[in-house]
Every structure is written in C-alpha cells, then in structure tokens.
Amino acid sequence: RKEVEQDPGPFNVPEGATVAFNCTYSNSASQSFFWYRQDCRKEPKLLMSVYSSGNEDGRFTAQLNRASQYISLLIRDSKLSDSATYLCVVTLNQAGTALIFGKGTTLSVSS
Amino acid sequence: ETGVTQTPRHLVMGMTNKKSLKCEQHLGHNAMYWYKQSAKKPLELMFVYSLEERVENNSVPSRFSPECPNSSHLFLHLHTLQPEDSALYLCASSPGQGGNQPQHFGDGTRLSIL
User: Fold this and answer.
1) Which of A80, B1, B85, B95 lies at a 20 to 30 A Cα distance from B72?
2) A43-97 pLDDT per residue, tens
3) Could you tell me the strand order of the sheet in which B64-70 lies?
4) B89 vs chain A: nearest CA distance in angstroms?
5) With an 8 Å Cβ cutoff, is B99 touching chain A?
C-alpha cells in the first residue's frame, strides 16, 4: 500500500469552478500535513499546512480527518494561475525528518 | 529569488564520471535536505542534515555521498551513477527539524546519465 496516495488526475476545470483533491495516508502515526504546489519544471512550494480543525487561506480550504487518515484541499473560484500539480505531504516523526510526498494531482484550469 | 540556490541547473554525465551538486541557502535555516524526483514517481527524500549533522539517510546507494560543511551549504557528490539515477535533484531547507516547519526548495539540478 502506498504511504501517501493521491488521484493523479488530471482535473480539467473551467475558470470559476470549485475543485477538490483528496489524499490518504497509511501511517496512523503521521504527525504533520501539508499541501505543496509544483508548477511544470519548477520546484515545489508550500501552499498551506493542514491543521486538525481545518484551515482556510483565501480560496483554499484544507481539511484533515485523522480517523479516516484523509486530507483534502478545496479550491474555490479557480483561476488560470491555479494550474499546477498539488502535492500532499505527510511527516512521520516529530522531528520532521521523515517526509513522504504523494505523487501529486494535476489541475488544469481553462478559460 | 527562492533563497535556496542550486548549481548546476543541468548536468549530463557518463556513468564513470564524478561530479558534485551544490546547494546554498540564504535563509538562516538549520536543516537541509536532498530529494530525488523521477518522472511519474513521488518526491523521494534522500538525506537530511540538521546543524551540519546527518540525521536521515533513506537507504540511498553509496554512489551518492552528501556533504554539509556548514549550515548554509550542502553538496551531493556523485560517482559511477546508473542510467536510472537520471532525475531532478532538489535541495530544500527549513528553519529547524520541527515537523510542522515547511520546506523551501531550490530550483533543482536536472541530471542525465548517459
């Protein structure tokens, strides 16, 4: 079983759409959770951390369900500039040295 | 500017060559990381250094040899690589080792092994 699993997509949506990405992780001892964004042939960049209570940053909302070992990212009012690959990241230890990345979900927003 | 600089951006080498990848961070961070990103595979953590000490080595073959002379610099020495080692090698840094601290990535070195 893969440690961090994501639907690879691609998700093709029109501008203004709402899109949701899911991620599941296998290790119940996982400590911290993040969403990173990676543009084509560029480095990953932190989009947002994911907290147990859920958190929102503008058009982006992240949710964590520890019981189901499930993380989600919701993007509202999609923009063309949101087109990228979204990486789900889990850290397995308190020190943060054991990071596991998902393969990523590709989003393409069209006009 | 990302704050994490990697050189070279591209590298083509034969299997018998020896080369080194360099990473420098200007963010005052204490932890640095090497990752490998291959096509259609998730990012793989290779090595972690915290305050210049290696704290994680994820079963990486010995043909990859990291070096961290100080908290701002990280090297990855390469020798007798295999074609399957062709990938994007990303360096990252974070303020410390804390699990909730995000990482800042460099642009990566795209490595091709002939």
Assistant:
1) B85
2) 899 999 998 888 999 999 999 999 999 999 999 999 999 999 999 999 887 767 6
3) B4-7, B18-25, B73-79, B64-70
4) 10
5) yes
